[in-house]
Amino acid sequence: MTDKAPFALGWEEWAALPELGLPALKVKVDTGARTSALHAFDIEPFGKADAPKVRFNIHPVPGREDITISCSADVVDRREVTSSNGETELRYVIASRIEMGDRTWPIEITLTNRINMAYRMLLGRQAIGEDMIVQPSGSFFQPKLDDAVYFSTAIRETGPARALRIAVLSREPDNYSTRRLVEEGEGRGHVVEVIDTTRCYMAINAMAPEIYYDGTRLPRYDAVIPRIGASVTSYGTAVIRQFETIGTYCVNGSEGIAKSRDKLRAHQELARHRIGMPTTAFAASPKDTDNLIALAGQAPLIVKLLESTQGRGVVLAETKKAAQSVISAFRGLKANFLVQHFVKEAAGVDIRCVVIDGKVVAAIKRSSSGGDFRSNLHLGGTATPVRISKEERETAVRSAKAFGLRMAGVDLLRAEDGPKVLEVNSSPGFEGAETTTGKNLAGALFDMIEKRVRPTPARKGRRMGQGKARA
């Protein structure tokens, strides 16, 4: 029986770090160096103190700074490393598997900026196994890898899942929906941080717009999930606009949230997209009360405050006289309101469709309690699973798209002439839909986020390398 032939390495080889999404790197093998090093910039630690992570960017192809790959990994250590020129640097240390030829093995890698080096990775002697022989006079004993993948869309499809840093904008960290988002995200290995919207403040300038929180500049987030209450819509949308300005992926944008929260504007948006809704009327002058009622139809009518939420500020006027009285009272309070046709055949029942990424992922039927015409679960309504029609599904999807919302709760009434949209909610609660249908809505949302923010090469036009690269 003969011993297994040693694994030969030259002073330069091709290697892959698949766990980091790096399928091809030209590596310098250096037995004079103790530790391995990988080129990294924009190095940022994140995560919990007992489970730290680090994310960083890399230019995998020397001389092509226009191509950037984003990576993340668990931190295994921080060490002082002295480079060949005698400089000492405190570096993050990560663990990953390296592939060369038909061999795969685990190694530890330190992160440092090697932008001026000819090789994006240096393989130190700690990473070289006892059965490996390094022949300094030769190179490329192992097969060449094709780094052309970085120039194609294939890198996006084959890249591994990476840990994301996600902010949930919410003033209610113990709210069911907020807790589910944190639970689902952390279960997938992401870092999810709950940020109180009202404690954010902004530095607005052309060169470096930033967001601060309790005296500290907020880090770069991969994505933001807005859970903004109606009472802070104006300030909340301003914060989201700031995130949009700095290029952060926002599940719902500021414009869509603002449109959905302004009920008059929301109904005008639905009308513009020819989406069915109850006939609605709005006026400012008290002289127009009778005409306003006539425009909405005959009693009974719904009189609804523009700022109403969760069924509050919504009144059913069963007669014309009652409608006149309610309108007079609201005008006396200098409140803005709508008058709307009451869909009798709905009989206190509406359909809540949760739309995520252009698909209805859950639908429930909400029924009013105790004869109340409002079916909101916050007011004691009950929920049951429901099968919706193709027309109802298409209406829900079109409504979310009309507002530019990637996540929305669309409330429908079943009228004789087809579905009527009551409201498009930009921060739908998960509890009623998840507990009623058993579906994982938070999971569907994270599926969308992971798909949208997966690392992909960032190309900004080819730039020539500056100066001669060193090894």
Automatic annotation (TrEMBL):
Pfam families hit by this protein: RimK, Rimk_N, Zn_protease
GO BP, sorted A to Z: SOS response; translation
Every ATP-grasp domain range: 267-450
Known cofactor(s): Mg(2+); Mn(2+)
Record's signal peptide: none
Gene Ontology annotations for the cellular component aspect, listed alphabetically: cytoplasm
SUPFAM superfamilies the record matches: Acid proteases, Glutathione synthetase ATP-binding domain-like
Key words, A-Z: ATP-binding, Ligase, Magnesium, Manganese, Metal-binding, Nucleotide-binding, Protein biosynthesis
One GO molecular-function entry: ATP binding
Entry similarity comment: In the C-terminal section; belongs to the RimK family.
Protein name: Probable alpha-L-glutamate ligase
